[in-house]
Write a structure and sequence with these properties.
Blueprint lengths: L1 E6 L4 H4 L4 H8 E2 L7 E7 L4 E7 L5 E2 L15 E7 L4 E5 L2 E5 L3 E5 L6 E5 L8 E7 L7 E4 L6 E3 L8 E7 L10 E7 L11 E2 L3 E8 L8 E7 L2 E7 L3 E5 L6 E4 L4 E8 L8 E2 L7
Parallel strand pairs: 1-3
Antiparallel strand pairs: 2-20, 3-4, 4-11, 5-10, 6-9, 6-11, 7-8, 7-10, 9-12, 13-14, 14-15, 15-22, 16-23, 17-20, 17-22, 18-19, 18-21
Cofactor: Zn(2+)
Catalytic activity: 5-dehydro-4-deoxy-D-glucuronate = 3-deoxy-D-glycero-2,5-hexodiulosonate
Protein name: 4-deoxy-L-threo-5-hexosulose-uronate ketol-isomerase
């Protein structure tokens, strides 16, 4: 079973008078991992497709052709994958690889078949996927968290001590425009970044997970720096973050999240920091 929802783009002026419900309907994705199904969202922000593939007793393959005007899903797209669930496998044009929790994969354009499976249906793999348009075929690369040296940043005094694992990044593998990574907050930290930033040249999508306990929630900050808004996010929910919006969030406890970006620039540090006295 496969479902795909389409979300459209908005200007900052559009959301100025949105109610909480309207804001959630446009930018929050509440269902990502549903056992036995593929749940996708197609955002017109840089035409990113993201979501969850959660195989149980049967393998799953993303089937998109007519929706994208192509013969097969990755004919003109690249794909990033990170498993945040139980052990699984990924079969790429007939080549099968084991995928434990925190293993990732970059899959280049013109790859015809990507099939996802779980080793144990009672503890299924949870493959978070992100796909964007691509103009060139780069090699497929498996990326394990064990192979990535994290960037350690923040500190306990400012509640943002965290490790950033860059999976699809120029230091790790080549891609057309997709960047993807995994951030883990240390116990006692809650902010995923503050001071916040924008990056007009790239949009971003986040999925939040591995919450410290069942009562944990994340307050995801968005909007223009001088007119901020927020979304209350539960575990394994995702947020679309337009390029004009601030990028920041704070949890009631520590958590992890996957970020995926695409746009005109693949330089990770290409961002515009927002001074704290400009936030409203």
């Amino acid at each position: 079973m496969q479902e795909m929802e389409t979300r459209y783009t908005h200007s900052p002026e559009d959301i100025r008078h949105y109610s909480t419900e309207q804001l959630r309907n446009e930018f929050l994705v509440e269902k990502i991992f549903v056992p036995g199904t593929i749940q996708l969202t197609y955002t017109h922000n840089d035409r990113m497709i993201f979501g969850g593939v959660t195989p149980t007793d049967q393998p799953l393959e993303v089937q998109l052709s007519k929706e994208l005007g192509v013969e097969y899903f990755l004919e003109r797209r690249e794909l990033g994958v990170i498993n945040i669930g139980g052990a699984g496998t990924i079969e790429i044009d007939g080549t099968k690889e084991d995928m434990k929790k925190q293993d990732g994969y970059y899959i280049g354009k013109e790859t015809k078949h990507v099939v996802f499976s779980s080793k144990d249906p009672n503890d299924p793999a949870k493959f978070y996927v992100s796909s964007v348009p691509a103009h060139h075929k780069y090699p497929n690369v498996k990326i394990s968290i064990d192979q990535v040296k994290p960037m350690e940043t923040g500190e306990g005094l400012t509640l943002n001590e965290r490790k950033i694992y860059q999976y699809i990044h120029p230091n790790v593998c080549e891609s057309c425009q997709l960047q993807m990574g995994y951030t883990i907050l240390e116990p006692g930290s809650a902010w995923n970044t503050m001071p916040c930033h924008t990056h007009e040249r790239r949009m971003e999508a986040y999925v939040y997970f591995d919450f410290a306990n069942e009562d944990t929630k994340v307050f995801h900050m968005m909007g223009k720096p001088d007119e901020t808004k927020h979304l209350v996010v539960a575990e394994e929910q995702a947020v679309i973050s337009p390029s004009w919006s601030i990028h920041s969030g704070v949890g009631t406890s520590n958590y992890s999240f996957i970020w995926a970006m695409c746009g005109e620039n693949i330089t990770y540090t290409d961002m515009d920091m927002v001074p704290m006295d400009e936030l409203k």
